[in-house]
Amino acid sequence: MVESSSRVSKTTQNLQTQLFNALLIQTLIPAVLMYFPVSVMFIFTFLNIDLGKMSGIATITIAVYPAIDPLPNIIIIRHYRQAVWEFILKILGRKMTVILRKSNHSVPKTTSFQMTTY
């Protein structure tokens, strides 16, 4: 089994690294946006300190969490990032250059094409 784990391709290792980094960031997002603000609010309540308008920050950060949570996957994982850029450029109807990063030498390194919108 040890020998088989060393035979993992560079592509798989790269993808696993990207997924691990995205998971780390996705672990920090709820801590920063949900647990920390609510914990501060509870602590200040127990200490009988009025937060005033600052108490609304916890509500805002909890409401923003579902929109921010998928962003690390979209930004960190290369295939998702490329698909989002292709979609954005397709909507804008601009000429797009895609850089193919494959180990296959028969595929050209850069391919340009015009995207048309329908």
From TrEMBL:
One of its GO terms (molecular function) is G protein-coupled olfactory receptor activity. SUPFAM superfamilies: Family A G protein-coupled receptor-like. The chain crosses the membrane at residues 20-47. Keywords: Membrane, Transmembrane, Transmembrane helix. The keyword Transmembrane applies. One of its GO terms (cellular component) is plasma membrane. GO terms for biological process: olfactory behavior. The keyword Chaperone does not apply. InterPro entries: 7TM_GPCR_serpentine_rcpt_Str. This is G_PROTEIN_RECEP_F1_2 domain-containing protein. It comes from Caenorhabditis tropicalis.
